[in-house]
Amino acid sequence: MRTWACLLALVAAAAAQDLQANLDQKLAKPFVKNAAWITDFDEAKRKARELQRPIFAYFTRSYAP
Amino acid sequence: MVEDGVLRTAAFNEFSKDFVMFLHVTTMIEGRKDDELLMRIGGAGFPHLVVMDVDGSVVREHAAAPTVEAFKQTGAVGTQRLALRKKAAAGDRDAILELALARATAGQITSRKLAREVARAGELTPAEQQRYRKTLTTLRFDEAKIYAQGAWFARMLADGLVPEGGERQTAFFLDILKWAEFQEDVATYERALKEMRRMHGEDQRAAEFFAMADSKLAELKVDAAAAKAR
Q: Which of A45, B78, B218, B219 has the maximal Cβ count within 10 Å?
């Protein structure tokens, strides 16, 4: 039983690592360097208030192609 | 795909300088901040492009082709909204009215808030009155559908009738939270939130939900204090 629990934990950890790697790959794409993208929503809102500019938001995903 | 196309162009880079550019990546990483933001703003499917106000509320979804020219048209709506917001903040009654109607049409404010904002604009012309009533009718119709269950559950709670079972209780108190927020009923909101915390307070996956709910509660308390002072 304990072995199964350990295996499941390992599988979950590996999956989490994969998801993080997918995100890193997405953020390394050339389009990200073509604009001053902010990836934190609160920071984007703070900046918008400070600069008095609207937010242009692009939603994408990294968990699938 | 836009990432290998329009988003890499010099024209897009030029366009981006008039905006705060926000890139959101849905990752499915458990517990990651704002990972479900797309769902929260009512988006479905990728890619999803929107222009937002400074408070993060969606002003316009980009539904046209993904070209810089089309982005400029969508972006212009955001710029207009910002100008309206500034005028309204400065006390311009036409802007106050327009902003309130625009936000109500987009479902960003409740009918109660709409009524308060419209009252700030002072006396309405017959044409304005007609627009207001039309917007109010649509909003009240939608609200009736959204909050009916919460209103029912809130009455049950007031009568001391709470369903048994985790799933039922979660649904019960979630709907009460929505209803109490709409009603601006601080006491009921606080009570339902306390019950939700009792059930799910230890669950890390719910941390963001509780952070948002706490912030909403604080907002409701500020509004209630302001209403009392009026």
A: B78
